[in-house]
Amino acid sequence: MSLDEPAPLPRAALERALAMLEAGMPYKAALEALLLELDDEAADRMMQLSREARGAWFLALGQPESSPSCPRARALCIGNALSGASVPLAQHGFEVTLLDSSPLRLRWAAARNAALVSGVSTTTILAERGAPLPFDSGEFELVVQDEALAPGMHDLTELARVSRGELVLIADNRLAYKRSTGRRGVFDVPNPLEFARRALSGPERTLAGYRRLFARAGLARPRCFALYPHASEFTFLVGLDGAPPRLELGPKERANALKLLAHSLGLFPLLTPSFALVGARSHSKPRWSRLLAAVESATGEHGAELEHMVATRGNSAVLLTRSARGEQEGAWCVHIGLSAAQRGQMATHAGTLRRIASAHPRCPVPQLLFEGELEGVYLTVERRARGLTAPQLTGELAATRRTLEDLSRALAELATAPARELDAEGFERLLGSRFDVVSRHCGSAATRAALAQLRTEARGEWLGLRFPLVLQHADLRSKHVQVERDGKLVALLDWGSAELADLPGFDLLHHMLHERKQAEGLSSRAMWRLALEPRHLRDFERASLERYATALALPEGYFPALAKIYPVVVAAMAERHWDYSRPRWIERQFGLGAERET
User: Fold this and answer.
1) What is residue 241's three-state secondary structure?
2) Which of 275, 277, 327, 284 is nearest to 305 (CA)?
3) Taking the CB of residue 121, how many other CB atoms lie within 10 A of it?
């Protein structure tokens, strides 16, 4: 690879973005300008590559040693510097050095890390792929190669030479039954012939092959984990040595007889798409063990055993524990932020759980057990809710009916201000501010024009409507709803986007539409049409909206008016909480302005 090639970004686009940074533009604004310049596929790949959740495996590391001359342990990250994996390392105790073959990627990554992690600078080293590493032996407490052992990358012996602590290899599996394309949610599943070709000729190794490489490098048997479904977009970190964390198998996975058979035969380590392998000359306990011990001390609860570890799309890591005693004590959900934006959202989540438990006890939420910093990590801890997340029952109409019935009642308990008619000031505060933020970030003149027209129409429909304000979850999709096997509501999860006095009914409508979207494979635009044309809703869906409207005495035209501006409410929530704006998001999702441009 040429030293000047910043793949996967076009060189000219990255040069222009770097010029913006050097002219004084904030990192967030420069990133948004860069993404707007890219086509959808390139922007998608950039956003996937730069996710901080790519480094969620840092919780599997042991305690790094520091020295008097360097109180922060030193980490060397080798590979594509655009990867967001180095950000959580810098946030959680490491002084990071990035080594890459592209000077443009290194410049961008250094600016990113400086913007996202205050008080910590990142060192960058330009080097050709495969060249001897320009460091003394044992110079780093942690060495990470965030790519497969493709031709031209450094071999493990050289990586082990410069590490006096741990060595992490993020590696693809030659026997993978699917691979990420680099785009969110898009995977390549080979046919049998292509699978056989890759299995016989692929440059990657199997798990057994990687283990042999670590042994040849003089390292102890590595801790081995699957990054599932793939290293570039993993949700679960799964232990492959017989120890937790484990792969979660819900009802839908258990309905897949072939997948269940392969799992029961122990084929998952053989066929999983990619690995995180943590090697060392001697291993210490992983960081999650120390964190859970600290939580035990802080809460006074004992007997917690790690069961699952989740890397979320929102750039947090979640540790799910179960009680060794089969009791509630020790069954936790531990949230750990991996991006700069997550700490604020986690604090909102914790504060909202306290508020609901105190002021709205009939709305079921998890019990907050702890919020604060332990072992140098800011985290929140709540009682793990029993049951299943609602997506595991998607498509089961009897369960969906029960969930919506319970939701309509629970959400009606969250009123925070009495009903009053919406005046011009209230319109601007509740709705106009949303149109402002979405218009500012929409990235298209045609979309701005469509939003301006919709705003004018909304003003005429909303002024004079009488309704109360509610504590709004603001992002109540199915994955944030915990239920029993029959759909009975157990708890509402993840309140990091909550608004304390906002529009009633949005949470119920948002959940209902997303449930249909998932069940029927709808686009966001088709999902929106369901709300605009209520005759396409099922009887029990309409009944849930009516039950909620009756409980809060909403006027007859309220839900039609809310449905019309639904994309703006969704986009405004996203823009307020994203750490950067996604390019042309409302146009791509809902088609606003698309017709005008064609």
Assistant:
1) coil
2) 327
3) 12
Are 326 and 468 within one domain? no
Gap between the Cα atoms of 589 and 571, Å rounded: 10
Measured distance CA(177)–CA(231) in Å, rounded: 14
- Token pair 């699952």 is found at 308
* pTM of this prediction exceeds 0.85: yes
Rounded Cα–Cα distance for residues 412 and 532 (Å): 22
Residue type, 213: L
Per-10-residue mean pLDDT of the chain, 598 residues long, equals 74 97 97 96 94 95 65 91 95 94 95 92 89 94 80 83 95 90 86 87 86 91 94 94 87 64 79 94 90 96 95 94 87 93 93 98 98 94 95 94 98 97 98 98 96 98 98 97 97 97 98 96 95 93 97 96 98 95 96 66
Based on the domain organization, do 82 and 178 belong to the same domain?
yes
Q: Beta 368-374 vs 377-383: how paired, if at all?
A: antiparallel
Residue 321 lies in a domain: yes
Domain region containing 141? 11-229+265-280
Beta strand pairing status for 489-492 and 481-483? Answer: antiparallel
Q: Please, which residues have CB within 8 angstroms of residue 522's CB and are 6 or more apart in sequence? A: 516, 530
Buried residues in 173-212 as b, exposed as e (16+ CB within 10 A)? bbbbbebbbbbeeeeeeeeeeebeebeeeeebbbbeebbe
Nearest by Cα to 288 from 62, 55, 54: 62
248 is written with which tokens?
A: 């979660």
pLDDT reported for residue 252: 59
In the chain, the number of structural domains is 3
Reading the block at residue 500, the tokens are: 């304390």
Residues 165/171/174/179 CA torsion (nearest 10 deg): 160
Contacts of 485 (CB under 8 A, 6+ apart): 251, 387, 388, 393, 399
CATH code of residue 319: 3.30.200.20
Q: Are 250 and 388 in contact (CB under 8 A)?
A: yes
Question: Is 343 within a domain?
Answer: yes
**Residue 587 sits in the same domain as residue 441:** yes
pLDDT for position 198: 84
In this structure, the answer to whether residues 363 and 403 fall within a common structural domain is no
Largest CA distance in the chain: 75
d(CA 138, CA 493): 44
φ/ψ of residue 595, rounded to 5: -65, -35
Q: 101 and 205: one domain?
A: yes
Sign of the torsion formed by the C-alpha atoms of 343, 349, 355 and 358: negative
pLDDT of residue 314: 87
Cα 490 from Cα 572, distance rounded (Å): 28
Please say whether the beta carbons of 450 and 410 come within 8 A: no
Q: Is 64 left (phi over 0), alpha (psi -120 to 50) or beta?
A: beta
Location of structure tokens 């700490």: 343
Rounded Cα gap, residues 65 and 165, in angstroms: 8
